Automatic annotation (TrEMBL):
<protein>
    <recommendedName>
        <fullName>PCI domain-containing protein</fullName>
    </recommendedName>
</protein>
<dbReference type="GO" id="GO:0008541">
    <property type="term" value="C:proteasome regulatory particle, lid subcomplex"/>
</dbReference>
<dbReference type="GO" id="GO:0006511">
    <property type="term" value="P:ubiquitin-dependent protein catabolic process"/>
</dbReference>
<keyword id="KW-0647">Proteasome</keyword>
<dbReference type="Pfam" id="PF22037">
    <property type="entry name" value="PSD13_N"/>
</dbReference>
<dbReference type="Pfam" id="PF01399">
    <property type="entry name" value="PCI"/>
</dbReference>
<dbReference type="InterPro" id="IPR035298">
    <property type="entry name" value="PSMD13"/>
</dbReference>
<dbReference type="GO" id="GO:0005829">
    <property type="term" value="C:cytosol"/>
</dbReference>
<dbReference type="InterPro" id="IPR054179">
    <property type="entry name" value="PSD13_N"/>
</dbReference>
<comment type="similarity">
    <text>Belongs to the proteasome subunit S11 family.</text>
</comment>
<feature type="domain" description="PCI">
    <location>
        <begin position="175"/>
        <end position="342"/>
    </location>
</feature>
<dbReference type="GO" id="GO:0005198">
    <property type="term" value="F:structural molecule activity"/>
</dbReference>
<dbReference type="InterPro" id="IPR036390">
    <property type="entry name" value="WH_DNA-bd_sf"/>
</dbReference>
<dbReference type="GO" id="GO:0005634">
    <property type="term" value="C:nucleus"/>
</dbReference>
<dbReference type="InterPro" id="IPR000717">
    <property type="entry name" value="PCI_dom"/>
</dbReference>
Length: 383
């Protein structure tokens, strides 16, 4: 049953009692409401939400004013307003109930995106209460809906934020890494506070290092989010990522002195040592031209700083992870590598590739000259 709201009395009350800077809003609210100018009224409401001292008024504003004309609002804008209002509830269960009530009001085929956003924002509060099962159920349900329709950026942002926070809680580093980057792709970084940017960069760095399937850091290394770690106590994490990307074991050893500050890294030291050795192997292959990728176990041992007897196991690990493709000759202690996983290149690596290309060009030109000299009749020179 719909409640008949006394909107004029409420607005008059707020005109008299609201802070001075907010009183003009209630005058405009009344005028636009009386004239049923819903689009303009929505825009005025959005401006009101941005006022720093409006927060204590938002719950009663919604209950006694917005609820009267919410059906006239664009559904996505209604949910956006509800998200701001929900943040004012001190009890997370109240916020969940409020958002799920909104979700039920936009649970129609033509407003499916708004419904998904409201459900995912409620899932955000469920996650805060430790209700991982309900959160995962919401994720699965909403993902199925999103796959079948074009999605607004705000809806994607809600979905990926909750997914990344869920996978962080589950310590699922690869999935957190993927969804956290997708979340950041939804808006301008400047829309996030510096503290949030630093937290996200820190968490992404940890997940990149500890992810057992993450050996290509290109999406993160090229993302401006990492710059937020500069000149902070976590700046060494950025350096560590670049050390891994370059397979620089020496720099890795130097930076391990910081691991005491990060219990997760300290606890996973054996895994991280294997990972840096794998990255060193990739780098050793990459810096050699294709015709010189026949490496002896002793060469790999030198590059990875491992005993020769551990090289075969490391190489098999690299093959199983599809970091390289090739064959192991156990008898002669040789690895023949045909392919290495594409990766993010720093400037010195690009310079090395350029040198390889120039060497290849000189080789081709030399071979062409030899063939031309040996069989000139096969070549016809143009004018």
């Amino acid at each position: 049953m719909e409640v008949d709201l006394d909107v004029p009395s409420y607005l008059a009350e707020q005109r008299a009692n609201a802070p001075d800077n907010l009183k003009p809003y209630f005058v405009r609210f009344e005028d636009l409401h009386e004239r049923k100018l819903w689009h303009q009224l929505t825009s005025e409401l959005e401006r009101f939400l941005q006022e720093p001292n409006a927060s204590p008024l938002l719950i009663p504003l919604f209950e006694r004013f917005v609820a009267d004309w919410e059906k006239q609002m664009d559904p996505l804008k209604l949910v956006a307003v509800a998200v701001v209002v929900a943040d004012q509830y001190q009890n997370r269960n109240d916020a969940i109930q409020f958002l799920m009530d909104i979700a039920s009001k936009v649970d129609r085929d033509e407003t499916r995106q708004a419904h998904v956003q409201a459900v995912m924002e409620a899932a955000h509060y469920r996650l805060g209460l430790g209700d991982l099962d309900e959160c995962k159920q919401a994720m699965d349900t909403c993902e199925a809906v999103l796959e079948g329709c074009g999605v607004q950026t705000a809806v994607n942002a809600s979905f990926y934020r909750v997914c990344s926070d869920y996978y962080k809680a589950k310590a699922d580093y690869p999935r957190f890494y993927k969804h956290a980057l997708l979340f950041l792709a939804c808006f301008d970084l400047n829309d996030l506070s510096l503290a949030v940017r630093q937290e996200r960069a820190h968490d992404l760095a940890i997940s990149a290092l500890l992810g057992d399937t993450i050996y290509n850091f290109g999406d993160l290394l090229s993302h401006p989010i990492l710059d937020s770690l500069t000149d902070t106590p976590h700046a060494w994490l950025r350096d560590l990522l670049f050390a891994f990307n370059a397979g620089d074991i020496g720099k890795f050893e130097t930076l391990t002195s910081n691991f005491a500050k990060q219990p997760l890294l300290q606890a996973n030291m054996p895994f991280l040592r294997q990972k840096i050795c794998l990255m060193a192997l990739i780098e050793a292959v990459f810096k050699r031209p294709p015709h010189a990728r026949r490496l002896r176990f002793s060469d790999i041992a030198t590059e990875t700083r491992l005993p020769v007897e551990e090289v075969e196991h490391l190489t098999m690990k690299a093959l199983s992870l599809s970091l390289i493709r090739g064959r192991i000759d156990q008898v002669d202690g040789i690895v023949e590598i045909d392919w290495v996983q594409p990766r993010y290149l720093e400037k010195h690596q690009i310079a090395a590739m350029r040198e390889q290309l120039e060497d290849w060009q000189r080789t081709v030109e030399h071979t062409a000259a030899m063939v031309e000299g040996a069989a000139p009749e096969l070549f016809v020179r143009s004018g």
